[in-house]
Design a protein that fits this description.
By secondary structure, the protein is an alpha+beta fold. The protein is built from three helices and six strands. The mean pLDDT is 94.
Length: 109
C-alpha cells in the first residue's frame, strides 16, 4: 500500500531501509529525542549511535502502511519483519516535526 508521508518522515524510512545511521540522524533536529525499547536517546550523536547499534544487532525491513495525526504527532504504523524477537510485528512511530526536521520520535507497539 502506498501512503503519503511528510517528506522528512519518508527520508527517515528510506535511510533506515539502507541501514544508513548517518542519514537517519540527519533527519533529526540537533536536540531531538528518540524513545525506543525503553531507552531514550538525546541529540543527533546519540540517535546516530542508536541506529548504528540497532542495524548491527538486527536485520529487518520496515513497511509503513498507515499514517494519522494525533495532536502534534504524526503516527505512522509500520510492519517490521526481521531477525529480532517477536518478528513480525506492527509498530507505531510517533513523530513530532519542527521546521522540517524530526524533533521527537517514539517507537511503540
Amino acid at each position: 500500500m502506498n501512503i503519503e508521508l511528510p517528506e522528512i518522515i519518508a527520508k527517515y524510512f528510506s535511510a533506515d531501509e539502507g541501514s544508513n545511521a548517518e542519514a537517519v540522524s540527519a533527519c533529526f533536529a540537533d536536540a531531538a529525542v528518540v524513545k525506543d525499547e525503553g531507552n531514550t536517546y538525546d541529540g543527533r550523536d546519540a540517535i546516530q549511535q542508536w541506529k548504528t547499534e540497532s542495524s548491527q544487532k538486527y536485520t529487518y525491513t520496515v513497511e509503513p502502511f498507515a499514517v494519522a495525526t494525533q495532536g502534534e504527532r504524526t503516527v505512522v504504523t509500520s510492519h517490521l519483519v526481521g531477525d529480532f524477537p517477536g518478528s513480525p510485528v506492527d509498530l507505531r512511530y510517533l513523530f513530532v516535526l519542527d521546521n522540517g526536521k524530526i524533533a521527537e520520535l517514539e517507537i511503540a507497539s
